[in-house]
Design brief:
The chain has one helix spanning about 15; strands at about 5-10, 10, 20-25, 30-35, 40, 55-65, 70-80, 85-90, 95-100, 115, 120-125, 130, 135, 140-150, 155-170. The protein is an all-beta fold. It has one domain (about 5-170): Sandwich (Jelly Rolls). Homodimer.
């Protein structure tokens, strides 16, 4: 196990997650009427982007098995040229683990943060943000994922950790 202190997962908020991406959730107020008044529409809930013109949007479904806290982080990954959005389809809570880059663009593991996303919350990672793959917490979960990909190694870069980092609950 790593000598670093365990990271305590905190509830997901826009303010805390802001340096890493967007929190996707809708407030009861706001939005605009749609479909002859049978729905509310919320536009531009995340800043989606790609820096590769040849990459195509990929809307995928991820089926995640449940894990429990405490959880051992053994790798981080990033998508250097694209944002990556996850929106739960069937899920109660899920774990997000992120960290900034150091001066060389590698993961700054001493600044690792963990968030627990609640019902109705999704996330959109900014391009290049180091993160652990998504983790369902209370049972298997399905997520919609959107990222721009072209099938090359630039789609996703992974970094295994030399020793696991522990994420604990509140």
């Amino acid at each position: 196990m790593n000598n670093q202190e365990p990271v305590r997962a905190q509830p997901l908020t826009r303010e805390a997650f802001g340096p890493f991406g967007d929190v996707i959730s809708v407030e009861r107020a706001g939005g605009s009427s749609a479909n002859q008044g049978t729905a509310r529409r919320y536009d531009r809930v995340a800043q989606l982007a790609s820096t590769r013109p040849e990459a195509q949007p990929n809307l995928a479904v991820f089926r995640s098995v449940a894990k429990a806290l405490p959880f051992e982080v053994r790798l981080v990954e990033r998508h250097p040229c694209s944002t990556q959005m996850f929106m739960p389809v069937a899920c109660q809570r899920f774990l997000i683990v992120v960290c900034p880059s150091d001066a060389q663009g590698e993961p700054e593991l001493s600044q690792l943060c963990a968030f627990v996303c609640g019902p109705g919350q999704g996330i959109n990672y900014h391009a290049g943000v180091w993160h652990h793959p998504i983790i369902a917490l209370e049972g298997p979960a399905d997520f919609l994922m959107l990222a721009w990909e072209d099938g090359t190694a630039r789609d996703c870069e992974e970094r295994p950790l030399s020793a696991p980092l522990l994420v604990t609950s509140d």
